[in-house]
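Retro notes (design track)

What went well: tokenization of the new backbones is finally stable.
What didn't: we kept losing track of which sequence belonged to which structure.
Fix going forward: every design gets posted as structure first, then sequence, in one message. First example under the new rule, 112 residues:
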């Protein structure tokens, strides 16, 4: 499992990235990220929904209540243009961190 801090820091870029493939509802976002991370990123609804609501307020995503195939109503989220721009910025920031850590870890001995 990842630290709470890293999970929290990665929530926005992960949600934006999942939504580039198309709209999704909350539980589906949770499952998709869990599957992609091999179970190492575990979101709860209580953690995800405040972030998603903030992203809506910031204009990154839009939401619409619809009836799902199961007959239950669900809130479906989709990416907006501002979300695409935010994702591009997030990608650059995360790639900078990744590249820096990769370089550092190549020149440092493995501490395990």
């Amino acid at each position: 499992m990842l630290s709470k801090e890293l999970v929290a820091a990665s929530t926005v870029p992960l949600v934006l990235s999942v939504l580039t493939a198309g709209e999704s509802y909350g539980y589906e976002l949770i499952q998709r990220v869990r599957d992609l991370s091999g179970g190492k990123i575990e979101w709860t609804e209580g953690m995800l929904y405040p972030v998603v609501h903030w992203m809506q307020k910031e204009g990154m995503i839009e939401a619409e209540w619809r009836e799902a195939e199961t007959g239950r109503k669900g809130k479906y989220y989709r990416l907006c243009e501002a979300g695409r721009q935010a994702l591009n910025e997030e990608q650059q920031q995360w790639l900078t961190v990744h590249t820096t850590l990769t370089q550092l870890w190549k020149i440092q001995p493995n501490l395990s």
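Added context from the reviewer: The radius of gyration is 16 Å.
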